[in-house]
Structures are given as structure tokens and as C-alpha cells.
Amino acid sequence: MEGEKEGTKTRISDRRRVRAMISQFFVLSQRGDNIVFRDYRGEVPKGSAEIFFRKVKFWKEDGQEEAPPVFNVDGVNYFHVKVVGLLFVATTRANVSPSIVLELLQRIARVIKDYVGVLNEDSIRKNFVLVYELLDEVIDFGFVQTTSTELLKSYIFNEPIVIDAARLSSLGSTGLFMQGTKRMPGTAVTKSVVANEPGGRKREEIFVDIIEKISVTFSSSGYILTSEIDGTIQMKSYLTGNPEIRLALNEDLGIGRDYRSSFGSGAVILDDCNFHESVRLDNFDVDKTLTLVPPDGEFPVMNYRMTQEFKPPFRINALIEEAGSLKAEVILKLYAEFPSNITANTISVQMPLPKYTMRASFELEPGAVGQTTDFKEASKRLEWGLKKIVGGSEHTLRARLTFSQEFHGNITKEAGPVSMTFTIPMYNSSKLQVKYLQIAKKSGTYNPYRWVRYVTLANSYVARI
User: Fold this and answer.
1) First to last CA, the chain
2) Which of 174, 280, 282, 464 is 20 to 30 A from 405 in CA distance terms?
3) How far apart, in whole angstroms, are the C-alpha atoms of residue 346 and residue 154?
4) Are strands 268-270 and 253-255 parallel, antiparallel or unpaired?
């Protein structure tokens, strides 16, 4: 990779291109409609999109309900990732590295989002000329050329058709900008990096996201067995002239387990981390500041991992016990252990039930609002959805189960574990913080907008019964 870096990690060397060769790329809607299709090599049948969607929709192999990200049908390897409800798919007959192809699909989705502003079916259809132009520059005859938004600007000549953000529903991360004391503009994650504002002017602003994915396993008695945080500091810049930026983190930040004994109890100790190649670490050891000239588009400034003890945002108590002949009762309790000024969104709790469960009736706490319950008979699974949970609150669900046969032995061994997904804006468990964001001034009046947000997501949040 030495001779082809050109200021970005995304240029792939000739030696690695052989492993990154793909035959086709296409994007499907949730209904299976073909939104984008590009055949680079003509080695795979044209009906591959239909074969793929039918296989994914009716996947029932190996006891799994969902198709894995990589599978093979009739000698064709299919790779796919799901991004905001769209399926990004690559096919090939070659023996390529799955991790490289899956990373490529994620990067293509990011590049398209950088150019069209918001990634959905409508925006891709309205910008199909631009999208095909991007695909032809990103991939040539099945070989990856570059996925750098900044490098592509020299070769892309079509202007994006900007989708009116006011018509977009607040899905996923878009709505997360509206949290906290300072409200971010609703267009924060729906802007193109190449399109100007109405009137030809470009609003000077920069967005920094600290996104953490939490993995926690609780024992049946509520003790933490394993805990880990996978975090990233994402940046998206709309600054003209690419000024230099200084990003300051916690002064008591340490990297490596050896630091745990030398820092106080409130210090942030990361197991390991890596930085984007544009980041300079000249003063990092002294004052924990990162210096960089941000490239165009969205990119990870820093990725980190942490296994130091931290306070989980939720506690889960689960109990299942006999309640007479052919009956049992499940009691689920959720405790929100974060400050009361923080609100978690889109909480989902799932619990596998014994395979001989016939029916389930539910009882929510009095005055419960924005909660849903369901019993998935095909998969024998209990589902509990909560629209939002305020910090410091407690919620309870009771489920009465009816069985088709008498159970023998310990019923708890045939149920669970309880798993949970959630999103908590403006909260992070690691306590890693951006202390300040300094931008080199081009003039005395230059003062761009700076937006910083924190988001915590559940990666694998499980409680044993």
C-alpha cells in the first residue's frame, strides 16, 4: 500500500485487489425491488438479485431466523449488509475475503450518503445518475479503486438532488440530534458534503459523534459476568478550506491496562485504540489532544475498546416459575440506572420461551404508555417494546404462559436468556468526553458551528435466568 496511499486508507494495493474482486453490486428495498444494479464482470447470472432476496426472505437453515451476511448458492457467493432498511449486496464466484467485501459495502453506503445527504430509497432513485457515476469510480471491472469521498470529488461531476429533510420521518440516528440542552438542526445528518445551501452559500459547521456499543452479560442473580464497550469518535465536516482542528479528550485518559494502577478511580482507561491516518498525535501524551485536517465526508477519528468496570445503563431482573398445571408466569423488571434528565429510546426486550408454549397473556403496570407486547408463536419468543424510558424509572411486565404439555425438570433451563436493545442519546458509559473542539481561524469573524453528541447503543445486552 506504500505507493497508493494518496492521503487515505481507502486506496487498495494491487496485491490486495485480487481478494477484493466482486462480480455484481446491487441495492434492494425491503420489498425486494432493485434500486441499483451494476454487473462488472458478467460472471454471475442476471437473476442473482431475485435469487438472493428469495433466499434471504425465506431463510430457515441451521435453525436461524435470519440469513447470515455471507452465504453461497449454486457456486455464487452473496455478501450483504443492511443499512437503514436497504440491502447492499455484492456477488462473486471468486474466493474473496468476506471481511473486505462487507467493509466495502459499508463504505459504499457511506459514500452515497455523503453525496446525496440522506440514505433512503427515495434519495437513491432521484440521484440514480450520481449513484451510478460514484459506483463506476469506486469499482472498476470488479476491483476497488477508492472509497474516499475527498478523492472522488475530483472525478464526480453530477450535482446531487437534495431531498427535503422536512419530509423525512425521524428514523434512527437522524432523530438523535434533537437531544440535549442545545438542539442540533434537523438537517444535521441529511446534508450532502458537496451541495451548497440555498443561495449558493455553504453553512460552516462540523459534527462530532461519540458512539458507544455496549456488551454486557448478567448472571441469574444480577451480577455482571462480562462487560465491554466498543466506541468510535465519528466526524463529519462542512468546513471550507479544510482548516486544522484540535480535539481535546479527558486529561486523565489512559491507554493500556498498565495505566489502571497509576490513575485514580475516576480515570478513563481504554484497553486499546486506533486513529485515522489524518490524526497527528504530537501532543497526545502531554495534553490528550488530537490534531487533524479533516477530509470531506464522514470518517472515524478514533476507534477504541474498553473493558474497565463501568455502570451499565440498565439492570434486568427475569423470573419464570410454575403457576399450576400447564401454566407458568414470567416477571421481567427493567431498572434505568442513568440520570433522570436522560431518556432512552426504542427499547426492545426479547425472551425465548419453552418450545411447548401455546399462548401468552400480558399484564403491564398501571398507566403504562408507549409499550407493546407480543408472543411470536413460530419462534416461541416473548417481545416487549418500550418507546422511551426516563432515567431512574422502573418498569415491569408480567406474562402468563400456557403450555401444550407438562414440563419436566427445571423450567428455567428451557427459557431465556433475556436480551435487550436500546438507544440512549447524550449518554456514554465510558465517560470519554470531548473537552473542546478548536478550529484554526481564517479571519477574526470566522466562527463555524460545532456540534458534539453522545450516543450509547446495545450491542449484546443479555441477562441469564
Assistant:
1) 50
2) 464
3) 40
4) parallel
